[in-house]
Amino acid sequence: MDTKCGYVAIVGRPNVGKSTLMNSLIGEKLSIVTPKPQTTRTRVLGVLTEDGVQMIFLDTPGFLQPRGLLQEAMVKEVKEGLSEADVVLGIVDATALERTFDEELQGLLKASGRPVVIALNKMDLVAQKEIFEGLQWLYDRFPAELVPISALKGHNLDELKKVLAGFLPEGPFLYPPEVLADQPERFFVAELIREELFLNLGQELPYATAVKVEEFKERDPSEGKTYIRATIYVEKPSQRGIVIGEGGAMLKKIGQWARRKIEAFLGRPVYLELWVKVRPKWSRKEGTLRELGYLR
Q1: Average model confidence (pLDDT) for the chain?
Q2: Tens of pLDDT along 138-149?
Q3: β-bridge partners, 226
Q4: CA end-to-end span of the chain, whole Å?
Q5: Among the residues of the chain, which ranges form H helices?
Q6: What angle do CA 43, 178, 266 make, to 5 degrees?
Q7: Region 229-233: what's the mean pLDDT?
Q8: What is the pLDDT of residue 201?
Q9: The CATH number of 185-291 is which of 3.40.50.1820, 3.40.50.10890, 3.90.79.10, 3.30.300.20?
Q10: Please, are residues 23 and 158 in contact by the beta-carbon 8 Å criterion?
Q11: In the chain, where are the structural domains located?
């Protein structure tokens, strides 16, 4: 067998750069990225095929102590990602070692029973001496293959891919080489809208929002424009007012930025229509979480 193929679960605490890393490895924006923690809510699958190796990355939500049904679903996504993996890629923030590689996370990685590779991310933000000290600190607590990287700058990613490939089994590709993801376009459209909610809304409000694409179709084939209608769900009427903004200014801003990103992702012009609706306690209702794709 000349080819290797396997699953790589990307695991770590919130905001350590998991989604940025997968996007950098794949070469496309498949996972949304914001400065706020817990942006990723479901596993996002990305496929990298090169040099006879197919790596199927599972970008999982940040591992945390769950509060509420939504976060319980997020932790479940992490554990299911671990169970599917041939190798686990743990991500640690070089600027916050103890916080992002605590005993609970170490226990999760050990309990997976899978080979583990640790990537020390954000090496571009610390001095060379701190990188060496960080690698030693990690090895003392968790002897494993260690690779310092910068997901944002793309530093040392070739070395990381080489190390990961060494743990993958020989076998045929599971996806055609040109495939980068297994989710439909609707999923990525909803995620790009949600990204703008996280980037434009302050404090805790983004965590009370969810997005559902209601309609996605070619309205006028002669124009080649895709019509997208999406609903932004919030939990309280006061939140709806903030998302819409004075005179609709905030919703217009979110829509404009989201449309640009969606057009860049789809490679064609888009007409985006956004609605904001109140659905009380949506994040605590199992039926709603299933409808929105957060529970399988």
Answers
A1: 95
A2: 999 999 999 999
A3: 218, 270
A4: 35
A5: 18-26, 69-84, 97-100, 103-111, 128-141, 157-165, 185-200, 237-244, 249-266, 286-291
A6: 70
A7: 98
A8: 96
A9: 3.30.300.20
A10: no
A11: 4-165, 185-291
Give the burial class of 124: count Cβ atoms within 10 A of its Cβ; 0-12 exposed, 13-18 middle, 19 or more buried: middle
Could you tell me the pLDDT band of residue 221, with boundaries at 50, 70 and 90?
Answer: low
Question: 122, 90, 99: which is closest to 11 by C-alpha?
Answer: 90
Which tokens go with 217? 């179709």
Q: Which of 157, 175, 67, 158 is nearest to 121 (CA)?
A: 157
Q: Which residue has the tokens 């060496």?
A: 132
CA separation for the pair 209, 140 (Å, rounded)? 41
Looking at domain 4-165, its CATH architecture is: 3-Layer(aba) Sandwich (3.40)
Q: Looking at residue 1, what is its pLDDT?
A: 63
**Amino acid letter, 163:** V
